[in-house]
Design a protein that fits this description.
- With about 120 residues, the protein is of the alpha+beta class.
- It folds into 2 domains: about 1-40, no CATH class; about 50-110, CPE0013-like fold, CATH 3.10.530.
- About 20% of the residues lie in helices and about 35% in strands.
- A 4-stranded antiparallel β-sheet has the order 5-6-9-8, covered by helices on one side.
- Strand 1 (about 1-5) and strand 2 (about 15-20) form a beta hairpin.
- Bound molecules: iron/sulfur cluster.
- Iron/sulfur cluster binds near residues 8, 11, 12, 28 and 29.
Length: about 120
């Protein structure tokens, strides 16, 4: 299978094949591409970035690490359910260890409507 590595802007074309128990990755310009290629055919993961609107602000959020691609919709629904915190700062964890993945949902930016 062929994938484009998305771990850096170079975008190497990876050729990933299974040979018995082994997964062979070719075309990667660095070791990160090998890990990415292996994950893509076993357990594809993605970073999630999104925004959430509260009464007075738009909060930018991201996952602390890449998360199982099949969980993306459920993660977004879970973020939607979170009620407005009394106080929120950049770097705060909005949801800790979401779905027991050891991945947190982190506040990366806050835009207040009055600014
Ligand atoms: S294999 Fe390495 S150099 Fe190539 S796109 Fe992925 S991270 Fe970048």
């Amino acid at each position: 299978m062929e994938f484009t590595c998305i771990m850096c802007p170079v975008g190497c074309t990876l050729n990933v094949t299974k040979q018995g128990e082994n997964i062979i990755v070719k075309g990667n310009g660095c070791p990160r591409g090998e890990i990415y290629g292996k994950n893509e055919i076993t357990l594809p993961k993605r970073m999630i970035t999104t925004i959430k609107k509260y009464k007075g602000a738009t909060i930018s959020l991201k996952t602390s690490e890449a998360i199982d691609k099949t969980l993306i919709n459920n993660v977004l629904k879970e973020i939607d359910k979170v009620e407005e915190p009394k106080k929120i700062n950049i770097g705060d964890i909005l949801i800790k260890n979401i779905f027991n993945t050891n991945v947190d949902i982190i506040v990366t930016n806050i835009n207040y409507e009055n600014n």
